[in-house]
Amino acid sequence: MSKVTRAPARRKPARRKSPRKQTAAASAPRRFRNWVEARLRGARYSAANAARLVAGLAAVLVILILGGFFIFGGLEDLGAAAQRMAANRTAAMGLAIDRIEVSGVEPEQAAEAAATISVFRGQPMLDFNPDTARTEVEALAWVRDASIVRLWPDRIAIVIEPRAEFALWQIEGDIHVIDQDGAVLGEADANDWPDLPLVVGYGANEEAGLLIGMLEHYEEIESRVSAMVRVGDRRWNLRLSNGLDIKLPESEVGAALALLSAMHSERGVLRLDAESIDLRQPGDMIVRARPERARAAGMGEREA
Question: What is the pTM of this model?
Fold first, then answer.
């Protein structure tokens, strides 16, 4: 009898869980994250658009405001107000005028110069205009040149070159002290300035510097001159201390002085008791005798 062997029972394979459910469960957070990121990107885009819109509106508003100020003339007022505000704030920080220092002149003149400029103690340094102050100081008759600077934080420095007394100018009976440029420094008494040369007549103050400079080369002539008289604002007469008049030409004055100096060295013409020596013609010298002496000698004039 055959033996029957039973085959072992086949085990059923274990049921695998559905991957769809696992995938769905795992993708839920990812979808949420993607949704959040999308929202954030949208928010950022909206914010950027909003910022651009606000900036554009602000720019338009500024343009309209500035345009209104320009049209109605208020732009300068706006700038001035901003400048005043800045100046006042810096003054509160210590940048304010405390003292004025003047150099180059005597104390009395320094005080006059300091009082001339339009400043006050405590004024903001930013409000001080050196160019305006320089114009005010140079308007003083005795000032030739001035330099003015701000010395931060609280000082104003003024350096002055004063006009030097150069000559006395007589015009219409009045005598003035002038500098080398002919600027009037003030009225004067000739007795108070014995060392200053005297020039007389219209235009003499402006032309004196050139003639006096030429005379410095001829000491024998310069030492005898008591006055230089401007004739018709065209030429000069030299009045010597002995009463002799030297009539100089309109041009070539240096050549005429050289001739006069040479003739004096040879013949002592500057010591002549004559009325005048005429040098108006180039190369010629005409001596005119005094009328009383001419009558006595029976002559009018002679050439030297």
Answer: 0.63
